[in-house]
Specification:
- 6% of the residues lie in helices and 18% in strands.
- It is mostly beta strands and 286 residues long.
- Among the domains are: 41 residues, no CATH class; 42 residues, no CATH class.
- It has a 4-stranded antiparallel beta sheet with strand order 1-2-3-4, with no helix packed on it. A 3-stranded antiparallel beta sheet has the order 9-10-11, with no helix packed on it.
- The longest helix is centred in the C-terminal third of the chain and has 11 residues.
- The relative contact order is 0.04.
- The mean pLDDT is 84.
Amino acid sequence: MAKTLRTSGDYNIKAGSGAAGTNTIKLDSKHTRITGDLTVDGSQTTLNVTNTTIEDQFIELNRNNSTAGVEDSGIVFNGGSGDNAILYFDASANEFAIATTSTNFQDGSTTKFEVATGNLTYRNIHVNASPSATTHAASKAYVDAQTSGGFTLRIAGDDSALVTVGTGNTLQFTGANGISTAATEPDTVTISLGNNLTNINSIDTGSSNGDLILRGNGTGNVVIDDTLTFSANASDPTATAQTIVYNKTAGGGGTGLYFRNSNISSGEVGELISKKKATALAIALG
């Protein structure tokens, strides 16, 4: 016969001195159902059952933690006579970990696991051998298969010549003559031109018939600290508002060094006069 015990207020069942004592209350039935919320105030809950099913979509661990980065939390798997296994979040490292532990945490009564103190040994994760998405974890077998036959790195210069970097070798970018290189992680090589160039035998423009411009900074000048040589004869250039100095076969001036400016003598070609010619001309003119 079913019975209902109804009270108008709270109903307490207490065995002996309650939680401070040693007495036990047992509910002995095929099924025990609690309609409503269940709150257990104690230090440990033990379930001696074969199967446990939980309807909740999410389970909260470490419920009363109020300080970030202090307490680890996770699940301890009883290893019997061997080491326990744990799946947990390492709060100090801010990462998840799977490991085994030789320390006896049978009841999960710990707040901190530390590899540094010898408590843990990290373990492998068995994953799908053929991941299908870029976000899937890959197995060692899969990675080995993708890189079978070795990995070859080939570097091409501006001349398209290929250089092969073999296993165990180092690819080094060497700077010299005012060019410096610096390598930093990850995968960055910086090439800087921040010093005076030395041992440079020639400078050529990069385009056909292109100008080569030497320009000082601000009011600075372009200084030629040695002999300036014109190595070939040039044709008379087009007259511009800027004076163009060039070299061709010497004429009446006896220098072979000519100039042209659209604002001088209507842009006519002029030759610089040598000292000898100038002296002779001065004597002739009286």
